[in-house]
Amino acid sequence: METNMKERKPEKKPREVSIFREYFELIAETLIYVFFVMTFLLQSFVIPTGSMEDTLLVGDHLFVDKVAYSRSLGGIDRLFLPQTPIERGMIVTFKAPHEMDKEYVKRVIALPGETIQLIDKQVYIDGKPLEEPYTFYKGGGFSIDDFPTDQWHYYFPYPFRLQVVDTPQGKAFKVPENHYFCMGDNRDDSLDSRYWGPVPAQYIIGKPWRIFWSYQSTRHEYIDITPLDKMKDLAKTIINFIPKTRWNRTIRKVN
User: Most buried among 84, 133, 146, 228, by the most CB within 10 A?
Assistant: First the structure.
């Protein structure tokens, strides 16, 4: 009996971890994960104007896939992070060529090397009419029915004016290599490539993926507002969160 007691090893006490430490580690891991995802994979974006109506509405909050069009991945990375070549009709987010501190969402209409022209609002690509079921004409301050014309908008940079070529249908704009001609779906109210030229490929950030929240808003709530306006809008949003949320648009895929 005494021998058995001598041979018995003392039991190890379970390691005690404080509840505070467990919560701290959980929060830290969550923040690291969110930081990684939001830095390298996804980006949030809110639609501030009606230039993409009715496809995207003012107040639509999007997740943008930053990997879909990335040019920096290669080798095995492409197996785990599949990418999609940019094609006509795709919606993209990009740094605005004339305002690099801002990001825009538009649709790709013409690809590198193609010619584009508008005649009475009809888009022609390489002389052939383009079917566009996504377009809307609601009127607004940025209406251009014909492009290109002799009356250039003051935003349009001079080097791109040299891309105007003569075709059997009249003057057309030839998209330079590594550039994309992007336009809003609401053609009468969209500041786009018709004004400031094609988008360089390296300016493209990613592909809008899904609307994670949609809130009934006006462009005045997002354009040129002061910190005080932001605080007021935040209070209004909290109060009106349920009645003004567009629940039917939540988690909708962007096409």
Answer: 146
